[in-house]
Structure formats: C-alpha cells, structure tokens
C-alpha cells in the first residue's frame, strides 16, 4: 500500500479563487500557454486527420490503420517516457516533443497542399506524434510539482482539465470542422503546424525549473530496469491504483475506438454537412469536459474521491448508447456533453490523486505506467473497430460502449476496497 511511503499530508485551503493561484508563477504561465496552443492544435488535427482520410479513402478501415499507428507508438514508448521524465530534465523533454509535432504537422501540411498526401503519410505522421505524446504526458505530470507548491496542484490540474477539453474537444474541432468544410483538409493542417510552432517558441522562452520537489542530489540514479521495476512494484502494491488502471484499460478497449474511429463516419452518414456536424459534436464533449473539470477544481477534493471518480467514469458513459441509435444532432450533442462532464470531473480528481498519493521521485514512472496500462488496448480498439463495423451494427457497438463501463467500475471498486481506502487516506 502507498502508506509505506512518505506521502504529503493534506494541504490547507487556499481560499477563494484558488484556481487562479498558479498563474502567479511565470514559468507556469508560459508552460500552460504553450500547452494550450498545442492542445488546440491536437483538437484541430484530430478532425483534420479524420476528414483527410475520408477525402483520400472513405473507409473506416483506413482510419483504423492511421489511428492504430498513433496508439501503438504511444503505448510502445510511454514507459520509456516515464523513465525519461524521472531521469532527464522535463523541460527539455517537452521542448523535444513540441519539435516533433512541428515537423510532423508541417510535413503533412506541405504534402497536402501540393496534392501528394497519401494514407501512409498520415500513418507515419500519426506514429511520430504518438511517440512524442508518450514522452509529453509523464514529463508534464512530473514538472508541475517542481514549479508549483503542493496546495496549487489541484488548481493547476483543474486549469489543464478545463483547457484540454475546451481546446482539444470544443474549440479545436469546431474550428477545424468549419475551416475544412469551407476549404479543404490541407488548409487545416497548415493552421495546426503554425499553432505547434508558436507553442514551441513559448516553451523555449521558459527557464529551467529551480524548485526541487525532492533533493535530487540524494536520489540514487538506479539502473533503468530497476526504475521500471520499482514503478511496477508500487503499482501492484497499491490496490486503488492497480484496479483503476485495469478498469481504464478495458474502458479504453470498448469506448475509445467507437468514438475516435466510428463517430466521424456516423456524422458523415447521418448529417448533410458531416464535417461541420462532427466538429460540433466533439465541441459539445469538450464544453462538458471543461465544465466538469472546472466544477471539481473550483473547490476541494470530494471526501469520497475514489467513489466519485469511478461513478463519473462508469455511470457517465451510459449516454454513449444514444449515439448509436439517434439521427438527431441535438440528442447526440447532449449525450456527448454529459459524457464530457463526467470525464472531465473524473480526470481532475485522478490527476490530483496521483500527485498527492504517489511519491514525487516516482511520479514520472507511475504516470507512464498510468498511460501504459490504461491505454494498453488503445491500438487494439482502433484496429478492430473499423473492421468490426463491417459485420456488427453501430447500435450494438455503442450499446456495449455505454453499458460495459458501469459493470467494470463496480468490479474495480469492490476488488480494490476503494470505499475503505478513501476514508483511510483523506486528502481534503
């Protein structure tokens, strides 16, 4: 159990407007500005990529291939990314990640503008971006405790929890849908490349962090395999962590593929202006996620933080069933909005939980294990859902996506005894 380690104690209430407190620190302001632009670019690129595939080859299998390349690269390198985050300067890693994004997006934009773009180009670009993302998330999670005091971590996670859905799932997709609908997918790729470039400039303008969450001179730099082993041991000895990740891995298998691969084709098939409607549907998800994240981050962690988190992710997935059956834009938008609210709220709790209950010197490795275990089936989900849609109805696929997480969440809570654990380890 995590009680074997020196876990920071609950911090004092920071008072009103605590969500704005991190912005007093210059390095955080530059970091979140750069991350916001990159998230905006990611949100646009998700729509641009799907619509570009539809333009080149209107086949769910082709989009499955491209998305599988992204997912497989992410899963393959995320453990390496976590070890790197604990051993290499996190700022340098984040700058390197943004550089890869700039190069990949620029190459796709140029090829699209000259009419030479092919599916394999998109697959290669997705592979590069997936690899970069595997290094970004552990580094970002590990750098926050080094530039912010402990009492500001919930607020910072809340800010990111608002920024990510607003730009990645709301503004980005909506802008991309409108832009591509009025022009062509390559124009969207150009804007994505520009946004990544501006983000890179902001990251270069940051200074190396001077706040050390631990005395790194006293931390033994163990062998890489020993670092990885220690992370796995901590995960296996911590039931709330292990069972949440197991829940997330199966959740991703049944939910992520239908949303990322099939939803663009559903919008294209059921609505006259598929590109614009697809962007707006994702926008409602993003607005819901932002609202859920803001609601949680504005106050303190719930006393029953594990119960609330699992209920959000489990019961909150039920509206996905509606997507498979309805041809009403209003109902589809409402369903994605509700799913977004619960997803955003749960993610803020989860991010704060990791930073509060995981030893700081292991945070990079545990964060990478978080992504590795929880997203292990992401490429599988992407790979099978396209071909599966040829033999199984969309209604059946989204029915499973909406109902299965409820059962999975209940199993995880029981197996990890989460209701007892959250009372034994209060974080308020």
UniProtKB/TrEMBL annotation:
Pfam families: MFS_1 (PF07690). InterPro entries: MFS (IPR011701), MFS_dom (IPR020846), MFS_trans_sf (IPR036259). Its main location: membrane. Residues 1-211 form the Major facilitator superfamily (MFS) profile domain. The keyword Transferase does not apply. One of its GO terms (molecular function) is transmembrane transporter activity. It is a multi-pass membrane protein. It is found in: Cell membrane. The keyword Methyltransferase does not apply. The chain crosses the membrane at residues 30-54, 60-81, 93-114, 120-140, 186-205, 240-266, 278-298, 305-325, 331-354, 366-388, 394-416. Keywords: Cell membrane, Membrane, Transmembrane, Transmembrane helix. One of its GO terms (cellular component) is plasma membrane. This is Arabinose efflux permease family protein.
């Amino acid at each position: 159990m995590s009680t074997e380690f020196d876990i920071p104690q609950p911090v004092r209430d920071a008072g009103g407007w605590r969500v704005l407190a991190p912005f007093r620190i210059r390095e955080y302001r530059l970091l979140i500005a750069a991350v916001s632009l990159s998230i905006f670019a990611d949100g646009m690129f998700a729509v641009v990529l799907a619509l570009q595939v539809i333009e080149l080859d209107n086949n769910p299998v082709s989009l499955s291939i491209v998305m599988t390349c992204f997912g497989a690269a992410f899963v393959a390198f995320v453990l390496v990314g976590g070890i790197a985050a604990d051993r290499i300067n996190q700022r340098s890693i984040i700058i390197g990640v943004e550089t890869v994004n700039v190069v990949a997006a620029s190459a796709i934009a140029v090829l699209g503008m000259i009419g030479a773009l092919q599916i394999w180009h998109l697959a290669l670009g997705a592979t590069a971006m997936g690899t970069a993302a595997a290094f970004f998330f552990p580094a970002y999670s590990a750098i926050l405790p080094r530039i912010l005091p402990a009492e500001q971590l919930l607020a910072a996670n809340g800010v990111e929890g608002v920024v990510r859905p607003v730009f990645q799932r709301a503004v980005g997709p909506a802008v991309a849908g409108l832009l591509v609908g009025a022009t062509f997918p390559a124009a969207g790729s150009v804007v994505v490349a520009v946004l990544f470039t501006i983000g890179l400039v902001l990251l270069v303008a940051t200074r190396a962090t001077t706040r050390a969450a631990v005395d790194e001179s006293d931390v033994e730099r163990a062998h890489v395999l020993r670092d990885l082993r220690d992370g796995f041991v901590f995960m296996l000895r911590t039931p709330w962590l292990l069972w949440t990740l197991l829940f997330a891995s199966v959740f991703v298998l049944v939910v992520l593929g239908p949303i990322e691969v099939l939803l663009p084709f559903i919008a294209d098939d059921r609505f006259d202006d598929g590109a614009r409607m697809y962007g707006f549907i994702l926008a409602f998800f993003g607005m819901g996620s932002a609202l859920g994240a803001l609601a949680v981050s504005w106050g303190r962690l719930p006393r029953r933080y594990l119960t609330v988190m699992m209920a959000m992710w489990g019961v909150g997935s039920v509206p996905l069933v509606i997507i498979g059956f309805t041809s009403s834009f209003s109902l589809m938008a409402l369903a994605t909005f509700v799913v977004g609210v619960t997803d955003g709220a749960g993610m803020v709790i989860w991010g704060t939980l990791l930073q509060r209950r995981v030893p700081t010197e292991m945070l990079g490795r545990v964060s990478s294990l978080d992504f590795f275990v929880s997203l292990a089936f992401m490429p599988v989900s992407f790979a099978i859902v396209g071909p599966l849609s040829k033999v199984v109805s969309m209604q059946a696929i989204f029915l499973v996506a909406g109902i299965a997480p409820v059962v999975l969440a209940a199993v995880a809570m029981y197996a990890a005894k989460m209701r007892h654990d959250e009372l034994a380890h209060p974080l308020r």
